[in-house]
Design goal:
The structure is a single chain. By secondary structure, this protein is of the alpha/beta class. The chain has a single domain, classed as SGNH hydrolase (Rossmann fold, 3-Layer(aba) Sandwich), CATH 3.40.50.1110. Helix content is 42%, strand content 9%. It is built from 9 helices and 5 strands; from the N terminus they run H-E-H-H-E-H-E-H-H-E-H-E-H-H. The longest helix is centred in the C-terminal third of the chain and has 22 residues. The N and C termini lie far apart (46 Å).
């Protein structure tokens, strides 16, 4: 457990157990750096293991599925540029963005971050400050168009088999508190918000929504998230 949905897999005391199960090496930041087409839309996905798609095939990751769904709707859009890594907290994502140096205008930006802040017991107000900075960066990447930025809520890992023996109710309350913060900041900025947390909690009764590592979302869950994100993404990039 590195820290949780990120390094949640290699964390503090049981790293060797989960490293083999989850395969953290798949989580490299700044992926799909293809040269963009001049007339294609560009999409930047920022986050942690939920965005990188830990423990699922690349084609099953929700940002990749989202691009496919947008193409099915007739949008000409490049493969997503992903800056995300298993285990990242808000400050680590900020550093990852600095190192990746994404350039140019993006027509769509998604931001999904915070689970590792919660898992590591980081302060909620620190999360607010750092999340606000990331959201401001996301809006800058979208050339100041806040309605082209989609914040996706933090899923509840407390319902997964990995959380067995832990205080699931406390995890739920802390996840809800962090999501209240990111929703407030999203509303303040005028960006879009997609709440996938209730869907994530369906994994309590549906094992098919959890990947083989017992912690991360399965391809089925990623697909369900896309159904929620797709209308907001399509609305963000539609032609006037």
């Amino acid at each position: 457990m590195k820290h949780l949905i990120g390094n949640i897999l290699l964390g503090i005391a049981v790293s060797s157990m989960l490293l083999a199960a989850v395969g953290c090496d798949q989580s490299s930041h700044s992926e799909n750096r293809t040269v963009p087409s001049m007339d294609s839309l560009r999409y930047l996905a920022l986050g942690d293991s939920y965005t990188i798609g830990e423990s699922v095939d690349e084609k099953e990751r929700w940002p990749v599925r989202l691009v496919g769904a947008l193409r099915d709707r007739g949008f000409k859009i490049d493969a997503p540029q992903v800056i995300a890594k298993t285990g990242w907290t808000t400050d680590e994502l900020r550093e990852g963005i600095r190192q990746a140096e994404p350039a140019g205008k993006y027509d769509l930006v998604s931001l999904m971050i915070g689970v590792n802040n919660q898992y590591r017991g980081r302060d909620a107000e620190e999360y607010r400050r750092q999340f606000r900075t990331l959201l401001e960066l996301a809006v800058d990447f979208a050339s100041g168009a806040a309605d082209h930025v989609i914040v996706v809520s933090i899923p509840d890992w407390g319902v997964t088999p990995f959380a067995e023996g832990r205080d699931r109710n406390r995890i739920k309350m802390e996840i809800d508190a962090f999501n209240a913060i990111n929703r407030e900041e999203t509303d303040r900025m005028g960006a879009r918000y997609v709440d996938v947390t209730p869907l994530s909690r369906e994994a309590r009764d549906d094992p098919a929504l959890v990947a083989a590592d017992g912690l991360h979302p399965s391809g089925k869950m990623h697909e369900a998230w896309v159904r929620l994100v797709l209308p907001e993404a399509a609305a963000a990039i539609k032609k006037d």
